[in-house]
Amino acid sequence: MPIMKPRAMGFNAVSFYIFWGILEGKRGDISFEGFRDLQPFFDAAKQAGVYLIARPGPYINAETTAGGFPGWGTHTPGLWRTSNASYTEAYAGYIKEVGSRIAANQITKGGPVILVQSENEYSGWADGYAEDPVYESQLMQAFRDAGITVPLTTNDAWPGGHYTSVDVYGYDSYPNGFDCSHPYNWSSDAVPEWLWGSHIQFTPNVPNALYEFQGGAFDPWGGSGYSSCSVLTGPEFERVFYKNQFAMSTTYLNLYMIYGGTNWGGIAHPGVYTSYDYGSAIAEDRSLREKFYELKLQANFLAVSTAYLTTRPMNIYNTQGSFTGNSALKTTQVLDVVGNKTGFYVVRQADASNNDTQSYTLNLETSLGALTIPAIGGSLSLNGKDSKIHVVDYTAGTTTLVYSTAEVMTWATIDNRDVIVLYGNAGELHETAIKFDGATPPAVKIASGNGKIKQKALVGGALALQYTTSGQTVVEVGSEVLLYILDRKEAYQFWVLHPPSTGDMTHFNTDNPIIVKGGYLVRTATVNGNVLSLTGDLNSTSNFEIIAPAASSRTVTFNGQPLLTTKTSYGTLSASKKVVLPPVVLPNLSSLPWKAANSLPEISAQYSDALWTVANHTSTVNPIQFTTPVVLYAGDYGFHTGNILWRAHFSATGTETAFKVDIVGGSAFGYSVWLDSTFIGSWVGDPAVSEFEGTFSFPKSLSKGTNHVITILQDHMGYEEDWASASDDFKTPRGIMSYSFIGSPLTVVNTWKVAGNLGGEEFIDRTRGPLNEGGLYGERQGWHLPGFDDARWSSGNPTMGISQAGVSMFRTKFNLNIPQGVDYPISIVVGNSTSTPKHFRAQFYVNGYQFGKYINHIGPQKAFPVPQGILNYHGENTLAISLWTADATGGNLESLALQITSKVETSMPAVVNQPSPGWTPRPGAF
Ligand code: GAL
């Protein structure tokens, strides 16, 4: 994941889940091989100066298959998420292993980890069960035994007072919900003012910790797509909802997600698709949304507002009309109850759904006594879906702002001058009052920009300045204050950087700020003597303004190239940098040579399933009891991901007319059925359907006593999560719940067989892990891997597709040669006409890694980002695509292309490719 970007945004920590099921695909065999190695991630965080909050579960939720539990949990007896021994024994090895790796990277050992979360949302229970304090303390003990010494936390699903025995209790909240299809609908009372009350009720003595606050939303199969989710949770949402949390004195705020990434392989639970973009500030392809820039304003404000840390909200539930006299507004008074100086007044619309602009004046107590603001006349305004924090008696270096209605983005004392960066919406009227000593107010001089300033000396020794926030105006107030008055778009361009200090935690430095305006992303500032080196990403010509100590910025470089700087009249540096974004021609996937092979030999008369697993269990520990003669739950035979195949051998009575079968696979799953070599139908899938009973007619009657086989190919959309503790919901089977032969109730299946990924829990691909490949013939054979010899395959490509129901695998190779020094994320993009969609499913394998699962008639995802490192940007790539057509007439991808989704020059260090071991003979493959 991008780890420098949150830091550049002004955040100081990142939390991350660890997925037990992917580390321990086989019970007792815990692997940190390949992508599962946590150490490079810990090292990158330390290098970026980002503290880490580890969240290893064992239950994580997170829209992952089984909520992070391993597949083998589905056939382990006893209730999970309780103190039941079969569960606590199951997680013991994992917690020990993962815990010791986290422990080695704790801050006390010079690492970046500052907190470890125990469980996740241990907040709801199946009927008849309740919070299990024995489980809670056993789990904490397991972390302690593994060497964790930093505080343990937990994330309650709301401030409900569950699992408060951890060191620093906290909760989560998703106040705008997950309906991305109506991104502008906010309910009137969506803003959760009550969270502070609950915090005080349960855990008044720890920080008000919000371990997950809505940073986006997930989107289901057939959903409206992540760009809608990014609107639902866009900059307006961030302003209103995050500032409300600041009104609640939230001193730990973690956003879920800042970066959601990709549910590659079988990571997802059935409720989400491959992309886990989440509509977050950092998009799946690592590009930055406007949300990122809005967050940067808020994060930097908090970083310099230390008085905030000791505040309390003073008038919860009594906010409507207060301080403004306008009942359409709510204002929370947040006072520093330790420093007893500073106040924060958080203003928002009383009705969150209101889009009207409100006018108001503020009536506040200040160190100058009671004031009506604006003091120079006129009124303030608040747009619909907006919120502001007005500061009172706010310290910025040696300067005190008696008040500012324009919001503070940051301030820094540089060369003995307090540089204060203020912003508002374009065209808004604002007022800021600066305290002064002595009898005469300081001189005010517009140093640059077109803004006009009205001024008035206030009784008690402050100079009020009134202005509108439009563009950028720089104002010198005396010789000691430099004000930047900005509109929001200008403010978005400011970055606050801290050159590394000395010592071990050098990159965590928060002293000696340098402010840089300009650039899509400024990552780092380093000072060496009088040379200031900046690094970052640029997407177009950038005009920089650099506010840095003169002595350490005689020479300035950006990404290693000198910047030609000129000094402004007020002592800052300006420079311009052109950006070269070299053109790149991507291979045209439709004109590449492709090879094709049938990946469903199972339906040919010659096929032998002798090596398949016989499904012959006559009992299961699964809480859902089986009604078939033998258990037909794929998980009971060790198959937990991807496509599953079933074979039913029977001897005909001669009166069978159809096969009826009830299969469960999770939301949007599908299945296709063959009688011997003849396709007899499909359930094509629907996002609202997790289990479907279909009846598939036989084309002709069978002769009495003849032997036949039904072959079923089903999709496995991942296991359900296990949100309600003690529910064992994650054990909900994937497989066959019932079957019968219509016209012949007495027909007996004499053997059931099942095939899933080769080896099942003894998965073959140690590098890519247990969830990468499924049970298609081509997957079992490793056709998706680089280096497989497809020379004898015929030509054929996925846009030509196949002309009947079945499965084919397509392979091609291409070279990429993307220049160094740029970040050009690439996606695989498919075409999709929704008029009369064909019913098919495709999986995209890039260098053996499954980075896309596409369901043509369900969608919505059409672009599948494949990160650099999985894609080899400097050499050969193998793309393999499985295509399962559910219609008798077959199907094909409408189009297929590689696409660059954003272009920046970057200082990102060279990306090391993930290990992508090639095909080797697979003993026992069938
Ligand atoms: C939270 C949960 C997360 C994730 C989120 C929704 O309640 O803790 O793991 O599932 O909901 O995206």
TrEMBL record:
<dbReference type="InterPro" id="IPR025972">
    <property type="entry name" value="BetaGal_dom3"/>
</dbReference>
<dbReference type="InterPro" id="IPR025300">
    <property type="entry name" value="BetaGal_jelly_roll_dom"/>
</dbReference>
<keyword id="KW-0326">Glycosidase</keyword>
<dbReference type="InterPro" id="IPR036833">
    <property type="entry name" value="BetaGal_dom3_sf"/>
</dbReference>
<dbReference type="GO" id="GO:0004565">
    <property type="term" value="F:beta-galactosidase activity"/>
</dbReference>
<comment type="similarity">
    <text>Belongs to the glycosyl hydrolase 35 family.</text>
</comment>
<feature type="domain" description="Beta-galactosidase">
    <location>
        <begin position="308"/>
        <end position="494"/>
    </location>
</feature>
<dbReference type="InterPro" id="IPR031330">
    <property type="entry name" value="Gly_Hdrlase_35_cat"/>
</dbReference>
<dbReference type="InterPro" id="IPR019801">
    <property type="entry name" value="Glyco_hydro_35_CS"/>
</dbReference>
<dbReference type="InterPro" id="IPR008979">
    <property type="entry name" value="Galactose-bd-like_sf"/>
</dbReference>
<keyword id="KW-0732">Signal</keyword>
<keyword id="KW-0325">Glycoprotein</keyword>
<dbReference type="Pfam" id="PF13364">
    <property type="entry name" value="BetaGal_ABD2"/>
</dbReference>
<dbReference type="InterPro" id="IPR018954">
    <property type="entry name" value="Betagal_dom2"/>
</dbReference>
<keyword id="KW-0378">Hydrolase</keyword>
<dbReference type="InterPro" id="IPR037110">
    <property type="entry name" value="Betagal_dom2_sf"/>
</dbReference>
<dbReference type="Pfam" id="PF13363">
    <property type="entry name" value="BetaGal_dom3"/>
</dbReference>
<dbReference type="Pfam" id="PF10435">
    <property type="entry name" value="BetaGal_dom2"/>
</dbReference>
<dbReference type="InterPro" id="IPR017853">
    <property type="entry name" value="GH"/>
</dbReference>
<dbReference type="GO" id="GO:0005975">
    <property type="term" value="P:carbohydrate metabolic process"/>
</dbReference>
<dbReference type="Pfam" id="PF01301">
    <property type="entry name" value="Glyco_hydro_35"/>
</dbReference>
<protein>
    <recommendedName>
        <fullName>Beta-galactosidase</fullName>
        <ecNumber>3.2.1.23</ecNumber>
    </recommendedName>
</protein>
<dbReference type="InterPro" id="IPR001944">
    <property type="entry name" value="Glycoside_Hdrlase_35"/>
</dbReference>
